[in-house]
Amino acid sequence: KFRMPTEDNLVPIRLDIETEGQRYKDAFTWNPSDPDSEVVVFAKRTVRDLKLPPQFITQIAQSIQTQLTEFRSYEGQDMYTAEKIVPIKLDLRVNHTLIKDHFLWDLNNYESDPEEFARTFCNDMGIEDPEVGPAVAFAIREQLYEIAIQSVASAREIKISKKGRRGAEHAISSKGGGNALDLMKLFRYNSSVVRKRKEWYVYEPIVDILSNEEVDALEAREDRNTR
């Protein structure tokens, strides 16, 4: 049944809200088992702590609730069960730290902990910024969430084809079946997790510390892309 393929079944929540000339961006995880009343409490506390206009309370609460509702809509549904070694990619900037990495993740390991992975990663790479670890863990959880959703779509496609409503090829190639096809190909791809020497560079983590000028240039480019 659907759940996050990690020890803690947490929902990645991303907020990007702008009103009255102020913008609030944040990313964090939420326990879907917590009562919905906690959402409003969190929104009020956030607005108070960050001294945001009161209008942000409703928008923050609504955005969190919408994302929680989407997550809960998948609960109880079947997931595609097979050997699942999937690639995870990191390409993010946190303050002055730029991170790029590429590694494999076992979706059948329900004891995995993205936060612990991120702490180990930061220690190994000598990263001192305390905001980097949570950002790395969140990036992993976001990708695992998308893969879990695709797993539900794959299970649905397989169930339909088995019932004979349509052939497997038609089901996969039909509208909306692209993600299921990609995921099934990925899960059925037999490959060793031990990489050949000539491929090592692909999986080597890259961490760069940017200057103030480089950060300003990146932020200006991100603002243009957002607009």
TrEMBL record:
Gene Ontology BP term (one): chromatin remodeling
Stated family: Belongs to the SNF5 family.
Keywords: Nucleus, Transcription, Transcription regulation
Organism: Citrus clementina (Clementine)
Coiled coil feature spans: none
Pfam families, per the entry: SNF5
Name of the protein in its database record: Bushy growth protein
Main location (coarse class): nucleus
